[in-house]
């Protein structure tokens, strides 16, 4: 009976990070400290979210952010908290945030790393008590130490990430991250103030039966996307769409499924941000055995052109993504054939 009450709690995040540090022979503790800084800020945001309804920080600020979206109070709070934690941690020389237009120089020129972050994804869902999240990517800087960070440091393809992850604030708060050696999830124990390993070596099912898609966009998408949605419906897949990217992705990674936000008539280049959302989740998906593509190429191979670049996203279980890409490819072939037929007819005439 006593064993029930004295059973091990589990491996704390700090201990796990220390144990895995040997996987990075070039590191001397800075990356470990950077991950701890992110975890600390996540604990603070967790507290703010849990008391949002009582502290009066729900709702809109009344202004638009750089993305042209209505900025929520908690967007601002999360942005400030994470930037402050990263600056004071002194392990990053530069930060880019979905909430800020330009690169942030942390005035830590000796730091080896730069961070891209979406401080609070899905923040409008706070008002209705729905799960939200934080998404982050970590890169090694490209410019020399003891110099200010530049766009060269930030505009790196996703394949160059050395770590990426997200924090899910829901019925429990989870930190999920990868340093390129698999994906591990940690659940927050508020009474102890610690994250503990709860989901070791997460693997995504190759065949999923959940599709996450905003059905209101159905007629705004291409024929190939509509064909894929019909394929899911005919096979009686479950349609699950929360509206918080982290929440949708997390469910599909654990249960098997696919999230898609294609190009639409309104957002012809896609809506999700490459640097703040797509790269990090693509890194995690591939580490867990899944796939992540835009409509044209692997997400991690896209060379970013701007800090707030948008792309379509198809991410999740490998065979579902392949099926979607196949239908998109067939649509492209049909269009090419029709174009050629029209051109041949014009030449003949």
UniProtKB/TrEMBL annotation:
Domain Fructose-1-6-bisphosphatase class 1 C-terminal, residue spans: 204-328
Names of the cofactor(s): Mg(2+)
Annotated substrate binding sites: 121-124, 214, 241, 259-261, 271
Location of the protein in the cell: Cytoplasm
Listed pathway(s): Carbohydrate biosynthesis
Binding site for Mg(2+) 2: 118, 121, 277
GO MF annotation terms: fructose 1,6-bisphosphate 1-phosphatase activity; magnesium ion binding
CDD domains xref list: FBPase
UniProt-listed GO biological process terms: fructose 1,6-bisphosphate metabolic process; fructose 6-phosphate metabolic process; fructose metabolic process; gluconeogenesis; sucrose biosynthetic process
UniProt entry keywords in alphabetical sequence: Carbohydrate metabolism, Cytoplasm, Hydrolase, Magnesium, Metal-binding
Family: Belongs to the FBPase class 1 family.
Subunit-level organization: Homotetramer.
Protein name per Swiss-Prot or TrEMBL: Fructose-1,6-bisphosphatase class 1
Taxonomy of the source species: Bacteria, Pseudomonadati, Bacteroidota, Cytophagia, Cytophagales
